[in-house]
Amino acid sequence: MSDIGERLAQVRARITAAARRVGRDPAAITLVAVSKTVPPHHIKDAVAAGVAVLGENRVQEAQDKIRALGRVAQWHLVGHLQTNKAKLAVQLFDMIHSLDSIRLARELDRHAAALGKRMPCLVEVNQGGELTKSGLTEPDVLPFLEEAAALPNLEIVGLMSVPPYCENPEDVRPYFQILRALRSAAAAEALPGVRMEHLSMGMSHDFEVAIEEGATMVRIGTAIFGPRPSP
Protein backbone atom coordinates (compact mmCIF):
# COMPACT_ATOMS: atom_id res chain seq x y z
CA MET A 1 0.00 0.00 0.00
CA SER A 2 1.28 3.49 -0.88
CA ASP A 3 1.85 6.18 1.75
CA ILE A 4 -1.26 7.92 0.46
CA GLY A 5 -3.23 4.70 0.75
CA GLU A 6 -2.06 4.22 4.33
CA ARG A 7 -2.94 7.78 5.33
CA LEU A 8 -6.32 7.47 3.62
CA ALA A 9 -7.05 4.29 5.58
CA GLN A 10 -6.16 6.09 8.82
CA VAL A 11 -8.43 9.00 7.94
CA ARG A 12 -11.31 6.66 7.13
CA ALA A 13 -10.85 4.88 10.45
CA ARG A 14 -10.98 8.22 12.28
CA ILE A 15 -14.14 9.22 10.36
CA THR A 16 -15.77 5.94 11.35
CA ALA A 17 -14.80 6.31 15.00
CA ALA A 18 -16.03 9.91 15.20
CA ALA A 19 -19.35 9.02 13.59
CA ARG A 20 -19.93 6.07 15.89
CA ARG A 21 -19.18 8.15 18.98
CA VAL A 22 -22.35 10.14 18.28
CA GLY A 23 -24.45 7.33 16.82
CA ARG A 24 -24.08 8.35 13.18
CA ASP A 25 -23.64 6.12 10.14
CA PRO A 26 -20.09 6.62 8.78
CA ALA A 27 -21.44 6.02 5.28
CA ALA A 28 -23.43 9.28 5.58
CA ILE A 29 -20.18 11.29 5.57
CA THR A 30 -18.51 12.15 2.28
CA LEU A 31 -14.74 12.47 2.27
CA VAL A 32 -13.57 15.23 -0.06
CA ALA A 33 -9.85 14.70 -0.67
CA VAL A 34 -8.48 18.21 -1.20
CA SER A 35 -5.88 17.88 -3.93
CA LYS A 36 -4.78 21.49 -4.44
CA THR A 37 -1.08 21.63 -5.44
CA VAL A 38 -1.01 17.80 -5.50
CA PRO A 39 0.48 16.41 -8.74
CA PRO A 40 -1.67 14.13 -10.91
CA HIS A 41 0.32 10.97 -10.17
CA HIS A 42 -0.41 11.33 -6.45
CA ILE A 43 -4.08 11.98 -7.20
CA LYS A 44 -4.06 8.73 -9.18
CA ASP A 45 -2.73 6.93 -6.10
CA ALA A 46 -5.54 8.39 -3.99
CA VAL A 47 -8.21 7.34 -6.49
CA ALA A 48 -6.69 3.86 -6.69
CA ALA A 49 -6.95 3.71 -2.88
CA GLY A 50 -10.65 4.54 -3.01
CA VAL A 51 -11.04 8.33 -3.10
CA ALA A 52 -14.30 9.14 -4.88
CA VAL A 53 -14.44 12.93 -4.49
CA LEU A 54 -11.60 15.39 -5.14
CA GLY A 55 -11.61 18.99 -3.99
CA GLU A 56 -9.76 21.76 -5.81
CA ASN A 57 -9.26 25.40 -4.82
CA ARG A 58 -8.60 26.97 -8.21
CA VAL A 59 -10.52 26.59 -11.45
CA GLN A 60 -7.47 26.69 -13.73
CA GLU A 61 -5.54 24.12 -11.72
CA ALA A 62 -8.56 21.84 -11.71
CA GLN A 63 -8.98 22.22 -15.46
CA ASP A 64 -5.40 21.10 -16.05
CA LYS A 65 -5.83 18.08 -13.80
CA ILE A 66 -9.15 17.06 -15.33
CA ARG A 67 -7.54 17.23 -18.77
CA ALA A 68 -4.70 15.03 -17.53
CA LEU A 69 -6.73 12.54 -15.50
CA GLY A 70 -10.28 12.67 -16.81
CA ARG A 71 -13.37 12.03 -14.72
CA VAL A 72 -11.65 9.59 -12.38
CA ALA A 73 -13.77 10.88 -9.48
CA GLN A 74 -16.21 13.67 -8.72
CA TRP A 75 -14.55 17.09 -8.79
CA HIS A 76 -15.69 19.68 -6.26
CA LEU A 77 -14.62 23.33 -6.11
CA VAL A 78 -13.86 24.13 -2.48
CA GLY A 79 -12.05 27.46 -2.96
CA HIS A 80 -13.29 30.95 -3.75
CA LEU A 81 -14.89 31.35 -7.17
CA GLN A 82 -14.57 34.59 -9.12
CA THR A 83 -17.63 35.52 -11.13
CA ASN A 84 -15.65 35.61 -14.37
CA LYS A 85 -14.78 31.92 -13.87
CA ALA A 86 -18.40 30.84 -13.39
CA LYS A 87 -18.83 29.47 -16.92
CA LEU A 88 -15.77 27.26 -16.69
CA ALA A 89 -16.67 26.15 -13.16
CA VAL A 90 -20.09 24.96 -14.31
CA GLN A 91 -18.41 22.96 -17.07
CA LEU A 92 -15.80 21.37 -14.81
CA PHE A 93 -17.27 20.70 -11.40
CA ASP A 94 -19.86 18.34 -9.99
CA MET A 95 -20.44 20.63 -6.99
CA ILE A 96 -19.38 24.11 -5.89
CA HIS A 97 -18.85 24.60 -2.14
CA SER A 98 -18.22 28.36 -2.25
CA LEU A 99 -21.32 30.20 -3.45
CA ASP A 100 -21.06 33.57 -1.69
CA SER A 101 -23.02 36.25 -3.59
CA ILE A 102 -26.23 36.69 -5.54
CA ARG A 103 -24.18 37.98 -8.49
CA LEU A 104 -22.25 34.73 -8.61
CA ALA A 105 -25.48 32.75 -8.17
CA ARG A 106 -27.01 34.44 -11.20
CA GLU A 107 -23.93 33.78 -13.33
CA LEU A 108 -23.85 30.11 -12.33
CA ASP A 109 -27.57 29.80 -13.05
CA ARG A 110 -27.13 31.41 -16.48
CA HIS A 111 -24.28 29.15 -17.52
CA ALA A 112 -25.94 26.05 -16.11
CA ALA A 113 -29.05 26.85 -18.16
CA ALA A 114 -26.92 27.08 -21.30
CA LEU A 115 -25.63 23.57 -20.60
CA GLY A 116 -29.05 22.21 -19.70
CA LYS A 117 -28.00 21.26 -16.19
CA ARG A 118 -28.74 22.15 -12.59
CA MET A 119 -25.63 23.17 -10.66
CA PRO A 120 -25.39 21.82 -7.11
CA CYS A 121 -23.95 24.46 -4.77
CA LEU A 122 -23.24 24.99 -1.10
CA VAL A 123 -23.51 28.46 0.38
CA GLU A 124 -20.27 29.57 2.02
CA VAL A 125 -20.64 31.21 5.44
CA ASN A 126 -17.89 33.42 6.87
CA GLN A 127 -18.37 32.69 10.55
CA GLY A 128 -15.40 34.56 11.96
CA GLY A 129 -15.82 37.77 9.99
CA GLU A 130 -12.29 37.29 8.67
CA LEU A 131 -11.42 39.69 5.88
CA THR A 132 -9.13 37.13 4.25
CA LYS A 133 -12.02 34.69 3.77
CA SER A 134 -15.03 34.75 1.50
CA GLY A 135 -18.58 33.92 2.46
CA LEU A 136 -21.83 35.44 3.65
CA THR A 137 -22.32 36.60 7.20
CA GLU A 138 -24.68 34.44 9.22
CA PRO A 139 -27.53 37.02 9.22
CA ASP A 140 -27.29 37.30 5.42
CA VAL A 141 -27.78 33.59 4.71
CA LEU A 142 -31.57 33.36 4.91
CA PRO A 143 -32.23 36.50 2.81
CA PHE A 144 -29.73 35.21 0.26
CA LEU A 145 -31.46 31.83 0.08
CA GLU A 146 -34.83 33.50 -0.47
CA GLU A 147 -33.41 35.36 -3.46
CA ALA A 148 -31.37 32.49 -4.87
CA ALA A 149 -34.30 30.06 -4.62
CA ALA A 150 -35.83 31.75 -7.68
CA LEU A 151 -32.94 30.65 -9.92
CA PRO A 152 -34.15 27.50 -11.72
CA ASN A 153 -30.78 26.05 -12.73
CA LEU A 154 -29.17 26.42 -9.33
CA GLU A 155 -29.61 23.68 -6.76
CA ILE A 156 -28.60 24.78 -3.28
CA VAL A 157 -27.91 21.69 -1.21
CA GLY A 158 -26.38 22.97 2.03
CA LEU A 159 -23.84 25.18 3.76
CA MET A 160 -20.05 25.32 3.91
CA SER A 161 -17.72 27.05 6.35
CA VAL A 162 -14.03 27.49 7.08
CA PRO A 163 -14.11 28.67 10.71
CA PRO A 164 -11.20 30.58 12.27
CA TYR A 165 -8.23 28.31 12.89
CA CYS A 166 -7.85 27.13 16.48
CA GLU A 167 -4.94 25.02 17.69
CA ASN A 168 -7.32 22.99 19.86
CA PRO A 169 -10.08 21.45 17.70
CA GLU A 170 -12.48 21.67 20.64
CA ASP A 171 -12.36 25.45 20.33
CA VAL A 172 -13.86 25.17 16.84
CA ARG A 173 -16.87 23.16 18.06
CA PRO A 174 -19.10 26.22 18.72
CA TYR A 175 -18.69 27.34 15.09
CA PHE A 176 -19.80 23.92 13.86
CA GLN A 177 -22.78 24.00 16.22
CA ILE A 178 -23.82 27.43 14.92
CA LEU A 179 -23.56 26.29 11.30
CA ARG A 180 -25.71 23.24 12.06
CA ALA A 181 -28.34 25.47 13.69
CA LEU A 182 -28.24 27.79 10.68
CA ARG A 183 -28.85 24.87 8.37
CA SER A 184 -31.86 23.83 10.48
CA ALA A 185 -33.26 27.36 10.32
CA ALA A 186 -32.78 27.43 6.55
CA ALA A 187 -34.40 24.02 6.12
CA ALA A 188 -37.42 25.19 8.13
CA GLU A 189 -38.06 27.86 5.47
CA ALA A 190 -38.82 25.04 2.97
CA LEU A 191 -37.76 27.18 0.03
CA PRO A 192 -38.22 25.69 -3.47
CA GLY A 193 -34.95 24.63 -5.05
CA VAL A 194 -33.19 24.66 -1.68
CA ARG A 195 -32.31 21.38 0.05
CA MET A 196 -30.34 21.76 3.25
CA GLU A 197 -28.86 18.30 2.84
CA HIS A 198 -25.18 18.98 3.47
CA LEU A 199 -22.85 20.60 5.96
CA SER A 200 -19.38 20.87 4.46
CA MET A 201 -17.19 21.58 7.49
CA GLY A 202 -14.06 20.17 9.06
CA MET A 203 -10.55 19.83 7.68
CA SER A 204 -7.46 17.79 8.56
CA HIS A 205 -7.01 19.17 12.07
CA ASP A 206 -10.65 19.31 13.22
CA PHE A 207 -12.75 16.95 11.08
CA GLU A 208 -13.59 14.60 13.95
CA VAL A 209 -15.22 17.41 15.93
CA ALA A 210 -17.05 18.50 12.77
CA ILE A 211 -18.44 14.99 12.31
CA GLU A 212 -19.59 14.91 15.93
CA GLU A 213 -21.47 18.15 15.20
CA GLY A 214 -23.17 16.92 12.05
CA ALA A 215 -20.80 17.38 9.10
CA THR A 216 -21.89 15.43 6.03
CA MET A 217 -18.78 16.43 4.06
CA VAL A 218 -15.25 16.81 5.40
CA ARG A 219 -12.53 18.44 3.29
CA ILE A 220 -9.22 16.75 4.02
CA GLY A 221 -5.93 17.41 2.27
CA THR A 222 -2.81 17.27 4.44
CA ALA A 223 -3.90 14.19 6.40
CA ILE A 224 -4.17 12.29 3.09
CA PHE A 225 -1.53 13.81 0.81
CA GLY A 226 0.96 14.97 3.43
CA PRO A 227 2.27 18.52 4.03
CA ARG A 228 2.17 20.80 1.02
CA PRO A 229 5.39 22.33 -0.27
CA SER A 230 6.18 25.83 0.94
CA PRO A 231 5.30 28.54 -1.60
Which structural class matches the secondary elements?
alpha/beta
- Write the CATH fold name: TIM Barrel
Largest sheet: 8 strands, parallel
CATH architecture: Alpha-Beta Barrel
Q: Determine and state the CATH class.
A: Alpha Beta
On the 0-100 scale, what is the average pLDDT? Answer: 95
The number of helical runs is: 9
Total domain units: 1
Q: Superfamily at the CATH H level?
A: Alanine racemase
Number of strands: 8
Strand % is 15-25%
SSE series:
HEHEHEHEHEHEHEHEH
Looking across the biggest beta sheet, what order are the strands in?
Answer: 7-6-5-4-3-2-1-8
- Unreliable spans are none
Envelope shape = globular
* Termini separation: 29 Å
* Proportion in helices: 40-55%
Radius of gyration: 17 Å
Layout: helices, strands, pairs:
Blueprint lengths: L2 H19 L8 E5 L5 H9 L4 E4 L2 H11 L4 E4 L8 H7 L2 E5 L2 H14 L3 E7 L12 H11 L5 E8 L11 H16 L5 E7 L6 H6 L4 E4 L1 H4 L6
Parallel strand pairs: 1-2, 1-8, 2-3, 3-4, 4-5, 5-6, 6-7
